[in-house]
Amino acid sequence: MSGVLLAPRQWSDTHAIVRTLRFLRVYDLAAGMYHRAAGFILWLRHPRSLRPNRTGTLTVHDLTFQMYDPDLLYLPGAVAGKTYEPSVTWHLRSVLEPGMTFIDAGAEFGFYTCYAGCLPFDLVIHSFEPNAGFCRTLSRNVALNELGARVHRLALSDERGTITFSDRSMAGEGPAKKEIVSAVPFDEWAAEQGVVPDVIKVDVHGGEGKVLFGMKRALRESVRHVYVELHPTALLVDCTVRDVLDVLRDAGFTLFEIDRFRAALPPALTEVTQKRYEELADESQWSEEQVAERRMIYGSR
C-alpha cells in the first residue's frame, strides 16, 4: 500500500485522536501508547518519505544531518518544513564555540547530539540516555552521521546506585516497561573521566532536579551555559520547580526563560527577575499551553 487518503471526516477524527494523545502526553500517562499511536498516525500521513525504515534528513536552520526516528518524533515536522524547538537550537548554536564540551543529558534519539556534532567546528560531546531502546537509537544516529560523540547509557542523578526507569521517567511509574539503570552524579562521573563541561542541555522528563543536584560543582566551576526543560512539580522527582530554579541561581547563573521555545523564532528571552521567579514557582499561574509544552530555562554567566 503506497498511501492512505483520508476523507474530511476521517481527518477530523484523526486530529481528535492526536489531541487526546497530546493530553495523555501532557500528564505523562501511557507515554508508550502515545509514542506508538502518534507515530502510526504520522506514518500514515507521510507514507512515501518515511517508509519503510524511518530514516530521513533533518535540516535545522542551515545544518543538515541524518536521523533514524523510530517513533517519528522529528521527521514528520521536517517533512512539513518545521524545526524541532527552533528557539533552543538557534540559541544553542550562538553559544557553542570551537573546543567546548557539550553535555546532552536526556539525549533520547540524539537530535541535539547530532545537531551540535554537525557544526562546522570541533566539539567534545557526551550524550547520556538511560532508556535502552533510546540509547541504541542514539548510538545508531551518532554512527549514521559519523560523529565523535560519546554515548553513555547512564542516568544522571544526585547519588550513585541504580534507579527504576520507565520510558523517559526517573519516577519509574506508569505502564511503560521498567528498567533498572545505573545512576551516577555528574560531578563524580566528570571527576573520574576528566571531563570539564562548558554547555549543558537537560531534558529528562521530571528528573531535572536530581540531575542538577548531582552537578552542583560543575555548575559552579565550569559551566557557562545551561538549558533546562522545566516540568510542573507534579511530574518532578523529589523536588519542586523552586528547587530547580534555586540550584541554578545558587550556582551564580543569570536566568532567562526562552518564551514559546517550541515555536517562536528568533528566540525571545525574558530575564527571570524575582517577580518572574515567583510566577514560575507558582504553577497556578502557568497557562494551559505552558503546562502542555513545558518551559525552557536558560542560564548564563
What this model shows, in words?
The chain is of the alpha/beta class and 301 residues long. It has a single domain, classed as Rossmann fold (3-Layer(aba) Sandwich). It has 13 helices and 13 strands. The strands form three sheets. An eight-stranded mixed beta sheet has the order 5-4-3-9-10-13-11-12, with helices on both faces. It has a three-stranded mixed beta sheet with strand order 6-8-7. A two-stranded antiparallel sheet has the order 1-2. Helix 1 packs antiparallel against helix 2. The longest helix has 19 residues, at 8-26. The protein is globular, with a radius of gyration of 19 Å. The model is unreliable at 1-36 (pLDDT under 50).
List the helices and strands and how they pair.
Elements: H1 8-26, H2 31-45, H3 47-50, E1 55-60, E2 63-68, H4 75-79, H5 86-95, E3 101-105, H6 111-117, E4 124-128, H7 132-144, E5 150-152, E6 155-156, E7 161-166, E8 178-184, H8 186-193, E9 199-202, H9 208-213, H10 216-221, E10 225-230, H11 241-250, E11 254-259, E12 268-271, H12 274-281, H13 288-293, E13 295-300
